[in-house]
Amino acid sequence: MKRRTWLLSGAGAFGTLVVGWGVLPARSRLGAASLMAPSAGSVALNGWIKITADGGAVLAMARSEMGQGVHTALPMLVAEELDLPLERVSIEQAGADAIYGNVAALVGSLPFHPSDMEEGHKTTSVRLGEWIVGKVARELGLNMTGGSSSVSDAWEPLRLAAATARASLLAAAAAQWNVPVGEISVQSGILTHPLGKKSHYGEWAQAASSLQPARVQLKSRKDWKLLGTPAPRKDIPAKVNGTAQFGMDVRLPGMLYAAARMCPMLGGTAGMTSPAAALKMPGVERFVNLPSNAGSTPGFAVVAKTWWHARQAVQAVEVQWQQRLERALDSSQVETALTKEAQTGEGFAFYSIGDTEKAESGAAQKVESIYAAPYLIHATMEPMNCTARVGDGTVEVWVPTQVPGAAREVAAKVSGVPLDKVVVHVTLLGGGFGRRLEVDLVAQAVRVAMECGGKPVQLIWSREEDHTHDFYRPMHVAALHASLDAQGQLTSLRIQSAGDAITPRQLARTVPLLSGPVDLPDKTTAEGLFDLPYSIANQRMSHVATHMGVPVGFWRSVGHSHNAFFSESFIDELAIAAKADPLDFRRRLLKDAPRHLAVLELAAEKADWGRPLPAGRARGVALHESFGSVVAEVVEVSLEGTLPRVHRVVCAVDCGVVVNPAIVARQMESAIVFALTAALYGQAEIKEGVVAQSNFHNYQMVKLAQAPTVETYLVPSDRLPSGVGEPGVPPLAPAVSNALAALTGVRRKRLPLV
Amino acid sequence: MELQINGKSVQADADPDMPLLWVLRDVLNMTGTKFGCGIAACGACTVHIDGAAVRSCVLPVSAVAGKRIQTIEALGTADKPHALQLAWIAQQVPQCGYCQSGMLMAAAALLEAKPKPTDADIDEAMSNICRCGTYQRIRAAIKQAAGVQS
Question: For chain B, how big is the Rg over CA atoms in Å?
Answer without folding.
Answer: 15
